[in-house]
Amino acid sequence: MTPNFGATRSDIRSRHALLTPESHEWIIQPGWEGAEFSCLISPDMGAKFAMFLLRFPADCMAPPALPGVARFLLCLEGEFQLDASTTLNTGDFAFLPPEDTAALRITQGSRLVLFEWCFLASGPVPAALHGSVDAVTGQPLRGNDWLIVQKLLPTDPAFDAEFNVMTFHPGASLAYVETHFMEHGLLFLDGGGVYRLDDRWYPVEAGDAIWMGPHVPQWFGALGRTPARYLIYKNYNRSPLARR
């Protein structure tokens, strides 16, 4: 491997972060035999959730989440099983509520992105669900048919989070600079462009991840000849006074 002599596009700040592949550190975790983790976002940086990339040099049986913790997984490559009859492949996703008992098995050579957060119940906790990104109907965002959003979880107040896939036609952008109390975790799946976070502007591409803390001014514009697409998380359906 050619040394990069200290160069990286990663930029970690108090209210936002860009995490790029050349700076990923891969580690092992107890109970995850066969898996390697890169923890991109965690409460240690100020977030109220965790986001991991996982790769699997060998088959793996995942341990259950910590008590009260929900999970969302998207298969980036390969496959994983929720039980003996449910196999999810590249582009498939799963939501696992706290205390879920699914036997999560991941096949050697697979890659996943995993989100974990302390779930805030509003009534009965929703059941586990799974699906395929390709099967989710996209809708124009605020009438802009060059910017399509696919909502992967039901629009139901029982869910305390949203996971969406956003697709931008080349040249499309968010309509305005957003500022709100919700935080985000984001992984670029395809394409790229320029992301504004606070008063900084970052070139971004497939494989990059972003953390946006509450009230960070944010904006994205797609560049290039192919669509830009990313998976994005945000805490939702909860008051800003709710504690995680």
Secondary-structure map:
Elements: E1 11-12, E2 16-19, E3 36-41, E4 49-55, E5 60-61, E6 69-77, E7 79-83, E8 86-89, E9 92-96, E10 105-106, E11 111-118, E12 129-132, E13 139-141, E14 144-151, E15 161-168, E16 184-190, E17 192-197, E18 200-205, E19 209-212, E20 218-223, E21 228-235
Antiparallel strand pairs: 1-2, 2-19, 3-4, 4-11, 5-10, 6-9, 6-11, 7-8, 7-10, 9-12, 13-14, 14-15, 15-21, 16-19, 16-21, 17-18, 17-20
Provide an overview of this structure:
InterPro entries: Cupin_2, RmlC-like_jellyroll, RmlC_Cupin_sf, UGHY, UGlyAH_cupin_C. One of its GO terms (molecular function) is ureidoglycine aminohydrolase activity. The protein has two domains: 12-119, Jelly Rolls, CATH 2.60.120; 137-235, Jelly Rolls (Sandwich). The chain is 0% helix and 47% strand. The relative contact order is 0.18. The model has no long low-confidence stretch (mean pLDDT 95). Strand 13 (139-141) and strand 14 (144-151) form a beta hairpin. It is built from no helices and 21 strands. The termini are far apart. It is mainly β.
